[in-house]
Amino acid sequence: MEYFQKAKTIKLISHKDKYLVAADDLVSIVQESNETVNNKLSATWTVEFVDGKDSIRLKSCFGTYLTASTQPFLPGVTGKKVVQTMPNCYGDVATEWDPQRDGMQVRLRSLCGNFLRPNGGLPPWRNSVTHDIPHRPNTWNKLLWDVEIVEKRAVMTPPDKGFFGSKLIHNAVVSQEPI
């Protein structure tokens, strides 16, 4: 979680050096290579913290959220679709992700216990993203994402008193007097 504390916007990069991208159809989530992503906003995600939890939400440039759906990616496979959904005023736990740090990388775990997983291979797997629990030990490393901080969060520092000291009552300046 501390990995995201300083980040306002990020890009997620898979083990195959592909970026997590919100497609412009406002539904699909895909992976794209560095050459196609360079100046695309759709690869940039805004980090939002969930109140009272160690979870985050990732908001796309379209205002949609990275969501762990319950729909199977393909019939008969364990992987479920990862999609974009519009914000829900009540808060949707399917949009919440629990970041688990592993060295300099993270795994993103949905609240149902599945991990965000970049897929490769032949179509329809190529450049797709699902969420599931890997059953092979060597697959765990494929769940790791590099986090590239695009914009840092503004650090809240106490106001500098400078030459004059201020007495504050309920955030209103009452008087200023020389130090």
TrEMBL record:
Looking up InterPro entries in the UniProt record yields: Actin-crosslinking, DUF569
Q: What is a single Pfam family found in this protein's UniProt entry?
A: DUF569
Its lineage opens with: Eukaryota, Viridiplantae, Streptophyta, Embryophyta, Tracheophyta
Q: Which residues form a coiled coil?
A: none
What protein name applies here?
Answer: DUF569 domain-containing protein
Spans through the membrane = none
Q: Report the CDD domains cross-referenced here.
A: beta-trefoil_FSCN_ACP-like (cd23340)
Q: Which domain of life is it from?
A: Eukaryota
> Where's the DUF569 domain?
1-145
